[in-house]
Design goal:
Length: 54
């Protein structure tokens, strides 16, 4: 029951495909591009932040 959503626009993060993944000591870090243009930073199963690269 991951209800991940973009902190900026509230869209479900599952709608976007992961762009890249990195293995870290804390889990898999992945980046997804949201429809609003933000990059969602996901660690494991949780969205931990978003970056705006406009
Ligand atoms: Zn968004």
């Amino acid at each position: 029951m991951n209800t991940e959503s973009c902190p900026r626009c509230g869209r479900p993060a599952e709608e976007s495909a992961p762009a890249s993944r990195h293995r870290t000591g804390e889990g898999t870090l992945s980046y997804r591009r949201c429809a609003c243009g933000s990059w969602l930073v996901r660690l494991g199963e949780h969205v931990i932040g978003a970056t705006g690269t406009h």
